[in-house]
């Protein structure tokens, strides 16, 4: 794949990224837990029915960024930004430059159009996923700055306060968001950096997060990874191959919200920065850890028996008639059977942000889920988890955001174009 | 390599990590810039003449941590910590557990000995490198707490203030340090987390840093990577194959410091957290960027001509007799010809720590160099760079540390044992 660098590809992709079709990835999945660092250099197509980075097999690295629109931005300028972002994303995902010229070309008297740190690197499975926050429709002062308030999806409201929340406003919300995922973190960082640069004067980076390891599988070909509690995470999450369930639980369906028909084929992205008290967790006995999760640590099997993907038996009783699966275990409270059957496409990442002044690692889970409607598919479950989940003793939700994720882009269009039609 | 997980290896490695020899890595280098994410799952041997992580081909990911010893720690307890750290490092580098039992074994009534997030992962080329800071020999009050002050290497003093320094004490120094490098960041994070846990009550994490992408090559088989200025970095750095130069410029030689004979075969590690003003840099014209660096951005060739590894010609004049290589360019000031011939083994990493309140990415270079003597091999050069380097307009050194890196460990010993003999 040595020719699939940003250098070699530039000629083939051209300005519009038209060669995408030739580079479709056959299978990026990693069936073996030992091959976590796959050498997958290919590109996912940018244009399509849905945006990339949702049902795409979860890449190992992520850079997420949320933006505030600049105070003076008007509708045309917002559209201009979305068009520029779309063009850049269509190029970068195919291994090309953020700009029309590659990182090393152009006038010597001008800054390069691309910052260059990914110049020699292949596409690395990069996906770029854009989202629109509630503030884009109505700003803090209640103004409809972009003339789109009437088309705000009813579900697109700031997430409610959950009882155990300890949110930092500087790690929450944002009018716009971008999720960049790739096999190589330098490629994901390059994408966010260049999109931030392109936004200069139009949107400003509000908060951002690097994730170093995926905590979810979105394909049956991917082994379940472990979170920083040392447990397999995302076992119950939806997989791309479950197309009927994905339609039911992830994509916004026609007629779901007549005011927001522009969102059909899109989704909602919930992001939660969840700090883990890992030093405290590490002092908990194995029995307590497994009881809190509701699964064995080694295999990820329900404590009621079987193997990882077997269904838990919440009725099974142990000594003294006590349920083997604690009713307040994480699995019990999050299980679809206890949440009106709702499921989520989870796509989170482990993070470490250094350490605090007491020498504790600032570490945790950057939770991401894509759902068809947060009112049915996230808020009720999180309300229960926040109140009752035994795991909350070791968690703190410190950041939060909800964004509507427009459907995929047709070549020549920009992301979210139907919202402005 | 699917059997080389922490799970499969445990039996083979055993408590002492004795099976290391069978897992020696033949060649981890990545000759192609497109194969940055190598699937190198093997282990480097832990025991040897030198510690790993110095001339080891630079892995792509790093987690660095600096520690302060606990106030009440005495000599025996320090030795106990170093022995526990050595034992854990010898196991983890071979794909084993931090503890004597694997992450999933042991009593259900006790916390697991290993935190578990790397349980399914292969060794991933993990190296763990320990260093001793000046404060270990004489604490801030001038006390010789561990009875080793007389054996302090003369070169092991806090680095001097350089004129452009803007150091944060919370990102500087530390009695002890650990550099964990691996192909998989989860493996590097797991190592630092578990070593931090093992130190509980004896040493506390002072500061730490994740690096997502190497900015140096330490083997001729590795392509030169790019830093966040988009330029190839570390072209002039030493490579492991230059064994005579490595002996001269990296390893501490017998007789170099009679008081510190315990350091023979070791080295000094200089770490500098260098914040890059990337938004400003990105607005600089290509001509200015290249003039500042002294190299072409595309190929990394000296501006005086040739290809990447050609020597610059500092005498070449352009129009009006102006040197083609600016005398204040980074390459000119750092070049061995202008530094009494000294060379360094560079081993730094790109980092991004989120963003500041103005929406600028908190990004830069975590500079690491291993040298035989910082008084000759770092301080004079950095003094000149800090005063004269054109690049300083776009840089800010915000963290700093110097550590003596003991030689390699023989099985049954602990790291730095000769210091306490």
From TrEMBL, chains A, B:
Q: Where in the cell is it found?
A: Cell envelope
Q: What class of enzyme is it?
A: oxidoreductase
Write the record's keywords in alphabetical order, separated by commas.
Answer: Heme, Iron, Lyase, Metal-binding, Oxidoreductase, Peroxidase, Signal
Q: Which Gene Ontology BP terms does the record give?
A: iron import into cell
Q: Which residues form the Dyp-type peroxidase N-terminal domain?
A: 51-212
InterPro entries from the entry?
A: Dimeric_a/b-barrel, Dyp_perox_C, Dyp_perox_N, Dyp_peroxidase, EfeB/EfeN, TAT_signal
- Cofactor annotation: heme b
Which reaction(s) are listed as its catalytic activity?
heme b + 2 H(+) = protoporphyrin IX + Fe(2+)
- Report the cofactor remark: Binds 1 heme b (iron(II)-protoporphyrin IX) group non-covalently per subunit.
A molecular function (GO) held by this record is:
ferrochelatase activity
Q: Which residues form the Dyp-type peroxidase C-terminal domain?
A: 224-409
Q: What EC number(s) does its UniProt record assign? A: 1.11.1.-
Tell me any Pfam family this protein matches. Dyp_perox_N
The source's superkingdom equals Bacteria
- Any Gene Ontology CC annotation: cytosol
Q: Which residues cross the membrane?
A: none
Query: Where the protein is mainly located, per its record?
Result: other
The entry sums up its family as follows:
Belongs to the DyP-type peroxidase family.
Role summary:
Involved in the recovery of exogenous heme iron. Extracts iron from heme while preserving the protoporphyrin ring intact.
Q: What is this protein called?
A: Deferrochelatase
Q: What species is given as this protein's source? A: Tessaracoccus bendigoensis DSM 12906
């Amino acid at each position: 794949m040595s020719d699939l660098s940003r250098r070699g590809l530039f000629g083939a992709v051209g300005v519009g990224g038209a060669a995408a079709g030739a580079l479709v990835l056959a299978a990026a999945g990693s069936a073996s837990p030992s091959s976590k660092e796959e050498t997958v250099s290919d590109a996912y197509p940018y244009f399509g029915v849905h945006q990339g980075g949702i049902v795409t097999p979860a890449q190992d690295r992520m850079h997420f960024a949320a933006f505030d629109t600049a105070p003076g931005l008007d509708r045309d300028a917002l559209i201009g930004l979305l068009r520029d972002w779309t063009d850049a994303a269509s190029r970068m995902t195919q291994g090309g430059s953020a700009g029309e010229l590659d990182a090393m070309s152009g006038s010597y008297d001008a800054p390069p159009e691309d910052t260059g740190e990914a110049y020699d690197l292949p596409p690395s499975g990069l996906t770029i996923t854009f989202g629109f926050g509630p503030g884009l429709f109505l700003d803090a002062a209640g103004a409809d700055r972009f003339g789109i308030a009437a088309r705000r999806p009813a579900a697109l409201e700031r997430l409610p306060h959950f009882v155990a929340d300890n949110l930092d406003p500087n790690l929450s919300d944002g009018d716009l968001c971008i999720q960049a995922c790739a096999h190589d973190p330098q490629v994901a960082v390059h994408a966010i950096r260049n999109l931030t640069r392109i936004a200069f004067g139009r949107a400003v980076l509000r908060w951002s997060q690097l994730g170093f390891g995926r905590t979810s599988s979105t394909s049956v070909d991917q082994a379940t990874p472990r979170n920083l509690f040392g447990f397999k995470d995302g076992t119950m999450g939806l997989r791309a191959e479950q197309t009927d369930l994905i339609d039911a639980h992830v994509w916004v369906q026609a007629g779901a919200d007549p005011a927001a028909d522009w969102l059909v084929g899109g989704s909602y992205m919930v992001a939660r920065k969840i700090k883990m008290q890992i030093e405290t967790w590490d002092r908990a006995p194995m029995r307590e850890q497994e009881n809190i999760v509701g699964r064995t640590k080694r295999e990820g099997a329900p404590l009621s028996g079987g193997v990882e993907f077997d269904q838990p038996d919440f009725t099974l009783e142990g000594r003294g008639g006590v349920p083997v699966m604690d009713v307040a275990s994480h699995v019990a409270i999050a299980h679809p059977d206890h949440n009106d059957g709702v499921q989520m496409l989870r796509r989170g990442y482990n993070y470490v942000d250094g350490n605090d002044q007491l020498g504790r690692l600032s570490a945790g889970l950057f939770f991401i889920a894509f759902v068809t409607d947060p009112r049915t598919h996230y808020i009720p479950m999180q309300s229960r988890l926040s109140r009752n989940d035994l795991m909350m003793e070791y968690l703190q939700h410190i950041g939060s955001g909800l964004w509507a994720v427009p459907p995929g882009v047709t070549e020549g269009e920009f992301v979210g174009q139907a919202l402005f039609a």
